[in-house]
Amino acid sequence: MSVHPWKAPRWLRLLPCVALVTSACQPGTSSDESAEAEGAGTALATLENCTGVSEWNASTIYPPGSRVVYKANLYEALVSIWSADPVLGTASGWYKLIGPCTTSGGDTLPPSQVTGLKATSTTSTQISLAWNTATDNVGVTGYLVFRNGTQVGTATSTSYTDSGLSPSTQYSYTVKARDNAGNLSTVSSTLSATTAPGTTEPPLPNGSWHPSYLALGTVYEPFTGTDKFFSKVNPLFPAGKRLDYGYLYLNGGSQISEWHDRAVRLANKSKEQGMTPIYVVYGIGGNTDSPAAVWNNLQSAAFLTTYFQGLRDVGQTATGIIGTGRIGYVIEPDTLGYIQQQYGPQYGNDPAQMPAATYAVYDSGVLQRGVDPTFPNTLTGLVQSINYTLRKYTPKAFLGWQLNLWAAPGAPSTGIVHATEVYGLEAGKTRIQENARANAGFALKAGVKYGNAEFISIDKYGLDGAGAAGANPNDPASSLWFWNADLWNNYLLFVRTLKETLSLPVVLWQVPAGHINGTLQSSPTAYNASGTFPLLSNAVQQYEESAAPYFFGDRITLSGNRLAWFSKNLWGDPKVSVSGSTVTWGSHIPEAANAGVVAILMGAGVGVSTRGIPQPGSYPEDQPTEGYYWISRVQDYYRAPVILP
Questions:
Q1: In this model, does residue 192 exceed pLDDT 80?
Q2: DSSP per-residue letters across 114-164
């Protein structure tokens, strides 16, 4: 059996992080954000003489030992490196920061003391600060903000929003000014500010792993761009509300060596933002779009030894940071899909008959023979051992395996969601249900529910509909992934069938974040001064997509083929209506909840995807690429979230 031609490759997301900035690479905080004691001296670190050292250039290849200047700091290359700037490169282990620059006889005068520090607004989880502009003989380049004596952030303007705070809690703030030479002013006077009381949420069901309303989350590659983004958008959330989840990829291949740092970064930053971290364990199927490579990884004791040791470290590391909070795992996207699609027939579609080197979990020292359960050397045994390992080393874990729309036979060449277009509405619905049951049945035999797994996950595909292979935004009917409401309703039918077959709630994951041009939804002027959202260009990182309009609802002005396509309503959906050239879709989050969805995790899945929040490789680094549409709709939703049935 061949891979369906409509299943577009994921290679753009899965490129190794080798000295290039990609969406799968894990950026880090800049040297500006290193913790610094409030009472430190007049410089961030020992000033370095950078005379004669060239400025960093993106097109230059720097061999190990080369030194460059970037943003008034001196860096040294640890590997042969190009393209990635030294701030991102330091976080990935490609550069090391030597220190801030000065030159002999250079500027040694610090800026003036910051005055006028005040709190401009408070909520239950954040405090917004402002202060007067400091002066300097050369020029002030930024400010360091301290909470309770520890640096918590930097600002290039005279304001800062501190997030991730506890309700009804008093905090002390000070600020220092910094100039281009790295000189710091004396510390400002101390400001005391208290957060507002928190709102009382209904009790959390099902072991407190998800709230009582349908939760939302985002892909989250923490770096300086996301810090600035959340500082801007957090004040516009309703009081006491934040995104529920932030997810981050743990890719396979050579990137397993990065898992520890990524675990640290996501746990710390999610905690700071008041989100629950979710790790997308993409080790077996990650960094490959090859079923044969996935199969070989299942048989490789050497690979699985490294893999299980990585899972142990991630669990222990994240737990050490999060403490008693919950930690989520979406397990191995595509892996079961590839195995079912390519190897199922020759093994009678029975994962218990498929070989796997499960013994590696014992040989690696991660589990102990005679102490931990004995798992067989089969695909089922491997799946069960992964669930068990995550539970053992992450005591507050919630987890679920990811399934695929394309894994089971019986779909038309355009994909199972298009079945109603090929076979008619009712016959197509039947095909969709049969296909979902086949997916769920294989997963059940593979052991995905072992150890009381909390959920099952299904994606859409992380590249926006107007950007997927063969897409034509002006003729969306010919675009396999630019769905109208009928196709989205087909998708929810597939989801509902998974939920009913497996008796597990569903987490939608990697749902794209673009929108449809022609939206009549108004924009907060804090995001777009015009009060409207900009048109998407349907070029790299600015593609149209219908997921957010479908789930959140929208009114869209359209014409021609676009009007005809997005007006379609074979389902007789009462939330779809047309008046002249305006198509109205009501919010379908209630329908998602009734289908068994408890959370929708949205975000770019490949490097060219539209970004609902900043990710490395887009510019400006602190802005989404779709004009803040997605985060605005999220904030609207949180004003009256949908309670789960």
A1: yes
A2: P---EEEEE-SS-EEEE-PPP--SS-EEEEEEEETTEEEEEESSSEEEE-S
157, pLDDT greater than 90: no
> For strand 127-130 and strand 215-219, is the pairing parallel, antiparallel, or unpaired?
unpaired
Strands 48-49 and 95-102: parallel
pLDDT at 6 over 50: no
Give the strand pairing for 150-155 and 140-147: antiparallel
Q: Tell the burial category of 441 from Cβ atoms under 10 Å away from its Cβ (0-12, 13-18, 19+).
A: middle
| Cβ proximity of 124 and 239 under 8 Å | yes
pLDDT digits (tens, 9 = 90+) for 583-631: 999 999 999 999 999 999 999 888 889 999 998 877 788 999 999 999 9
Mean local confidence (pLDDT), 575-580: 97
Asked if 240 and 3 count as a contact pair (C-beta separation under 8 A), the reply is no
Average pLDDT estimate for 71-85: 77
Backbone CA torsion sign across 113, 114, 115, 119: negative
User: Residue 183 burial by CB count (10 A; 0-12/13-18/19+): exposed, middle or buried?
Assistant: buried
- CA 440 from centroid of its chain's CA atoms: 26
What tokens appear for 307 in the block? 């893999």
Q: What angle do CA 433, 437, 438 make, to 5 degrees?
A: 120
How far is 357 from 370, CA to CA, in rounded Å?
18
- Residue pair 218/276 in contact by the 8 Å Cβ criterion: no
SS3 category, 308: helix
Residue type at 630? W
Residue 390: other Cβ atoms inside 10 A? 23
Is 447's pLDDT higher than 90?
yes
> Which of 141-145, 247-251, 263-267 comes out lowest in average pLDDT?
141-145
Q: Region 17-44: what's the mean pLDDT?
A: 35
Q: Walk me through the domains of the chain, giving residue ranges and CATH numbers.
A: 53-102 (2.10.10), 115-194 (2.60.40.10), 215-639 (3.20.20)
